[in-house]
Specification:
The protein is built from 4 helices and 6 strands, in the order H-E-E-E-H-E-E-H-H-E. The protein is of the alpha+beta class. It has a single domain, classed as Electron Transport, Fmn-binding Protein, Chain A (Pnp Oxidase, Chain A). A 6-stranded antiparallel barrel has the order 1-2-3-6-5-4. The protein starts with a helix and ends with a strand.
Length: 137
């Protein structure tokens, strides 16, 4: 292997390691701030509950979360069972989660762009949005 190829391979391996470490630390520590919400998703078969801290997006009077990271098991559970529990500020309750598509997704992407630094640290994962609608009491 030439020296240039070895340097490129080493850079790639180090980059993957940095992304894996950053994503793992976020998943493990799940830092919360004023824009956070806690979403509880449920396994279809067992009904087991799983909490995930996410950044809340409020746009045009509606509540959304973005899927911005590679670890996204919570998102796959949500696609299988869209009934979730949400807690933020003084709000807590049952919500229906719906994947956002089309023009609504484009509007959210434009309203909430991701910085290049964040995209580099997270390894350029595909980004999706989920709308959270409170269930009727």
């Amino acid at each position: 292997m030439t020296k240039t190829i070895r340097i490129i391979v080493l850079f790639f391996v180090l980059y993957v390691g940095v992304v894996a470490m950053f994503e793992s630390m976020l998943g493990y520590f799940q830092p919360e701030n004023q824009q956070s919400l806690v979403m509880t998703t449920y396994d279809i078969g067992s009904g087991e509950a799983h909490n995930r801290v996410l950044s809340r997006i409020e746009h045009d009077g509606q509540l959304f979360v973005a899927v911005n990271h590679w670890p996204r098991q919570w998102y796959y559970r949500l696609l299988e069972n869209n009934q979730v529990q949400v807690r933020y500020e003084d709000i807590s309750g049952a919500f229906t989660a719906t994947k956002v598509d089309g023009a609504d997704e484009a509007a959210l992407r434009q309203a909430r762009p991701l910085g290049l630094g964040f995209r580099i640290l997270t390894g350029f994962p595909p980004r999706y949005f989920v709308e959270l609608t409170p269930n009727a009491p």
